[in-house]
Design brief:
By secondary structure, the protein is α+β, with helices and mostly antiparallel strands. Helix content is 39%, strand content 23%.
Length: 243
Amino acid sequence: MKLDLSKIQLSVHDVKKNIRLPRVLNPNLAELIGIHIGDGYLGYRENKKEFLIQCMGNPKTEKEHYDKFMNSSWKEIFNIDLNLKNFNSGCYGFMVYSKAIGTFFNHVLEMPIGKKSHTIKIPNIIKNTCKESISDEMVACIRGIIDTDFYLNKDNYSFELGAYFASRNLVLDLNYYLKKLGMLPIIYLDQKYYNSSSNKMLVRHKIRIRKKKDLEFWANFIGSHNPKFYKRNNFPVRHAPVV
């Protein structure tokens, strides 16, 4: 799918950095969209006319994913060498300041500016690739979401792949497209829970996958680029190729 870049302008700093923008939606870019849905944030400071794209995860489980896949993908897609590091917040990741990439994320990839946890969903640019069947782009986007936000736990002899989200629409989207792939996830909507950090009762939504055939389908067909799945859980998850 060709992307409309006609309204995207590179700033002086973008030109100096030799930043480039992709002109086609492919699985690699779709996976970055999924990763941004999970770990990303898009900000804009009006007083400085400045866009910030950041992505951060848990240094204990995400560092290798960022160092290898994220670093190479951003270089391939945007011609950027990421400055990956530990932040005072306890997270590991990167920040990129770029008018062109920020505008691209917002206007072309449909990523919202500001807090997104309650409203984020799979964007139409990905959904529109699935008019006849589930596309490689949708599979890659789902992989990016799973790699950043899902857990894989073992309970006795059974594994569970799952996640909690503040966004109801994202859980509904994942449930719909995973079912289109032939899987049977279970979702729990509007669950109330006590959040100790805010000292408030909040609402979250859960999706989980427990059936052996569904876990095998995820492992063999969707795969992963995050070593926390294919190295540390004693579960044979396919190391997905970069297309």
